[in-house]
């Protein structure tokens, strides 16, 4: 018998309130990365946490190479969870690649979403000069994949400090490195390729124009540079761009109070 969606994606529901906030983690992470942020909303909202198939405590036997070769496969995880829990008009909080995954899900099923809150989003990580700066040359990312093929542990110790970029909090870099290493190498490699080589710029035009969107951009982020946040703000009519004092790519870990405050402020200014 195939596992239920709740078991497959290790879904956890907490909190109280008439509205639901769903938190979606990024590449190489799991729902535990929201532990400093999600509890702050449990008094007023129902909160949903989950792991994508292949991550965290999900059922890795459900992993399918063909399905997860494209970000739409991960978007289907999100849609499945919403349908299993009979969710609609939810507040989506996504980190990194989950921002695009959430937008792809909203493109297919706009009624599921009321608001998108995007932390460190990027529709394309590769530079396309002269009009788009994604932060990486294609050769850089091919080098990362090569490293993942040749050194199953070394790539994590290389990438974690680049992503976290908060040397004053070395325990967070170590945690992220351990999280990278916890994923099955084959799944990690394919998720990395799917994440870093996808180009979803054309999908932005299909996100509902009346959908409130908050973009939270860190002031110094090597993974999603400031130019990417500004690009998204231009391409998503009605979106709000907030530049955080936080540095790195994981402000929900390194600067949770600032992250919480911006989310709360935004939700308080949009209709409940």
UniProtKB/TrEMBL annotation:
Segments spanning the bilayer are none
Reading the lineage from the top rank, the first entry is Bacteria
Any Pfam family: Abhydrolase_1
> The AB hydrolase-1 domain covers which part of the protein?
20-256
Query: Where does the secretion signal sit in this chain?
Result: none
Keywords (alphabetical) are: Hydrolase
Supply the InterPro entries for this chain. AB_hydrolase_1, AB_hydrolase_fold
GO molecular function, one example? hydrolase activity
The entry assigns this protein to a family as follows: Belongs to the AB hydrolase superfamily.
Name assigned to this protein: Alpha/beta hydrolase
């Amino acid at each position: 018998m195939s596992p239920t969606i709740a078991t497959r994606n290790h879904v956890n529901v907490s909190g109280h309130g008439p509205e639901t906030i769903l938190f979606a983690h990024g590449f190489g992470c799991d729902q535990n990365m929201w532990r400093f942020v999600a509890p702050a909303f449990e008094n007023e909202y129902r909160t949903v946490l989950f792991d994508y198939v292949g991550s965290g405590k999900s059922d890795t036997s459900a992993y399918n190479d063909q399905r997860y070769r494209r970000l739409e496969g991960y978007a289907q995880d999100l849609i499945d969870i919403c349908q299993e829990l009979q969710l609609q008009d939810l507040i989506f909080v996504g980190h990194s690649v989950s921002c695009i995954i959430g937008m792809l899900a909203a493109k297919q099923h706009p009624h599921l979403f009321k608001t998108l809150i995007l932390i460190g989003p990027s529709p394309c990580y590769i530079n396309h000069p002269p009009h788009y700066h994604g932060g990486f040359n294609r050769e850089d990312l091919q080098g990362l994949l090569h490293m993942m093929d040749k050194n199953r542990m070394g790539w994590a110790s290389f990438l974690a400090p680049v992503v976290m970029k908060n040397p004053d909090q070395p325990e967070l870099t170590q945690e992220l490195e351990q999280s990278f290493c916890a994923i099955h190498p084959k799944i990690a490699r394919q998720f990395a390729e799917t994440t870093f080589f996808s180009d979803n710029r054309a999908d932005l035009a299909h996100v509902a124009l009346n959908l409130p969107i908050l973009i939270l951009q860190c002031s110094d982020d090597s993974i999603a540079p400031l130019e990417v946040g500004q690009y998204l703000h231009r391409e998503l009519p009605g979106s709000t761009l907030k530049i955080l004092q936080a540095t790195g790519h994981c402000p929900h870990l390194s600067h949770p109070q600032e992250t919480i405050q911006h989310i709360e402020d935004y939700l308080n200014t949009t209709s409940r």
